[in-house]
Structures are given as structure tokens and as C-alpha cells.
Amino acid sequence: MKSFALMLTFLLFLTSCQSSSGGESPLVTGTTSESGTQPNTTSTASSTPANTATNLPTHTATNTPTHTATSTPANTATNTPTHTATHTATNTPTNTATSTPTESMRPDRTRIPDESKMTMKRWQSNGDGQWSSTHEPARCPLMDELFEIFPIDISVLTQFARPGRTGFNETIYIAHGALRADNTKYDEINVKFPASGFSLHAVNRRVETYIQSDEEQIKLEFIHPCGILVRLDHLAQLSPKWLDIVKDVPVTSDSRLTFVEQNIHLVELGEVLSDGIGHPTNTYLDFGVYDLTRKNNVAKYISENWPDYKGSGDHGICWSSFFGEETEQILKNLPTGSVSTSDYCDK
pLDDT confidence of 110, banded at 50, 70, 90? Predict the structure, then answer.
């Protein structure tokens, strides 16, 4: 009996020790989202709030804090669930964003636009010769401010056929002016661009079969964003830069244009376009200026009598006054050719 009593006392002692150990400490789990929201935590029966804003090892809530089995912080984002000894409402860990932000979260990066979806500012004409711009055009400068350099050496001119006239026995309408230099070799006359702010719009390369010459003739058209078009035709021996730009345009026997994207090939004020004009036996340059923003004073006449010239004949302007009074007077004193009148200049 004595030994039985001793054994019973020992068992009671062991039971008392287990009840004083406090049991397992509650587990705190959580993840920090990329957006900075607070981590999700599991709720426990403990009245002591769990601190989840630190990555330090989790402590138990007993009066004498004891560390978990290891000093390494618990990783709760594993696929192995963690069991606790108490009834808790645990949340299943969810996948969060990786540490590398997405493109929309990177303010230091500028998104490169898709150029194939961009609409360039340009002027365009429909099949009826009506001009329009894809964007609201800026106001054009005054013409005598926009045009600063006469395209060729005015001292070599022998004739000035004014713009806005009929030609070839009234079989065509000519909206541009013509500058002849009969006493100068055709390949000794540089052509310079007369203004600034323009870009290439259209090109024509041809060999004119009605003249006994194999000298290639090149027509270049340039447009200013405000809506002014400049045409220079019968350019010969193009400069290396511009010959390279138009190298893929086919050489034909007619004057039809090949259009290019505007605002790409810019031309500078005074830039040399070619080293010659016309042919060895026919030295001349066509020079026309067109205001695409409005129709001119003979638009109705063009529409009724020259419908094939809508879009050019009804937008042509008299440009002889753009380069100062001295140049205007020189041009006025030159012979005009077979047609002395001008629908644009004789107002």
C-alpha cells in the first residue's frame, strides 16, 4: 500500500507540471502585398494583439516570452499548411505580386508609343481637289516673312512667265510661274529652297520625250504645316542628299506624282536642291506657291472651265512680291513670254 501511495503521488506531480507549461503559443502568419496593404493575419483566442509588421521571429504570448523552435522567421507562403493546437480561423495564404513591379508601376519609365498607330500631321487632297489637314493648322506667317531667298540667281533671268495663265494654245492651265535663263548653261544654276519650315510632300522623276534630251527632270513639292505648298519643277542634277531621298521613285515619261510621308524629309532655308535646271537646250525652272487653306479669286472660273486643275489652279497665288521690292521690280521688268496676263497677279 505504501508503494501504491508513492506511485499515486508521483503521477499527481507529473500532471501538475504539464498544466503549468502554458501549452503551444499561437502562430501568427501573414504576407505583405506589393501595393502596401496590411498583411492578412490569423485570429487566435489570445487577447494579446499579434504584431505582423515586422519580419523578426514571432514570440509567444506567455509572461515569460519563449522563442519558436528556430530563430529564422517562419515562411508562411509555402504549400505545406501549418497546424496549431488551438481552434483558429486561419486564412489560406494567397500569391502576391513579385518584387519586380509591372510596367504600370514604374514611373521612371516612359511608355514608347506605337508609331504604327500614330497619325502624323499632314495635308491631303481628295479626288475632287479639296484640301484638308488632319489637325488644326497653325497660323501661317506673312508671306514676305516666310519666303526669304529667291530660288535662283535673279541676275541670270531672261524671262518671267507669271503664275495663273493658260498655255500651249490654251490647252492647259498653269498655276506656277516659269523662270528662264537662256544665256546661262543649264548645269551652272543652283536652286536653293526659298523658305523654312517645309518638308517633302511629293516627287516626280521623268525623261521628257518631246524634247531631244535625256536629262532627267525632277519635280519636288514641299508643304509647310500651316498649309503653304511650294513646287519646284525641272530640277536637274539633284544634290546627293535629295537624290538619295528620291532614289526609289521610278523614272517615267509623265508628270504624275509619288507622294511621301510629310514631316520626315525636312528642307532648310537656302539649302541647295540641285545644280542645274531644265535641259542643255532649254534652261528654265517652274516655281509655284499654293495656299491650301483657302481658294483664290478665280476658284469659280477654274471649277467651271478647268475642272481637271481643281486643287492647284484654284489655290495658286502670285508670289512675285514675296522677296522684297527690288526683286519684285526686276521680275516686273522681265519679258513675260507668250502670255502676258495673270489671273493671280492682275487684280
Answer: very low
CA separation for the pair 262, 175 (Å, rounded): 22
Element (H, E) at 346: none
| DSSP assigned state of 203 | E
Strands 251-252 and 198-206: parallel
CA distance 15 to 244: 100
Separation CA 146–CA 289 (nearest Å): 12
Nearest to 287 by CA among 248, 249, 327, 258: 327
- Which residues are CB-contacts of 265 (< 8 A; sequence separation ≥ 6)? 199, 200, 245
Q: Which of helix, strand or coil describes residue 308? A: helix
The one-letter code for the residue type at 1 is M
Contacts 24+ apart (CB under 8 A), 183-187: 183/156, 183/158, 184/156, 184/283, 185/280, 185/283, 186/215, 186/236, 186/276, 186/277, 186/278, 186/279, 186/280, 186/282, 186/283, 187/236, 187/237, 187/275, 187/276, 187/280
- Least Cα distance to 277 among 342, 184, 203, 194 occurs for 184
d(CA 129, CA 312): 8
Question: Which has the higher per-residue pLDDT, 317 or 87?
Answer: 317
Per mean pLDDT, which range of 135-139, 215-219, 303-307 is the poorest?
135-139
Of 319, 325, 255, which is closest to residue 287 (Cα–Cα)? 319
pTM of the model: 0.66
By mean pLDDT, which of 10-24, 30-44, 86-100, 278-292 is the weakest? Answer: 30-44
Quickly state the pLDDT bin for 125 (edges 50, 70, 90). confident
CA 118 – CA 181 distance, rounded (Å): 45
Structural domains of the chain ordered from first start: 141-333 (2.70.70.10)
CA torsion 330→331→334→337, rounded to 10°?
A: 180
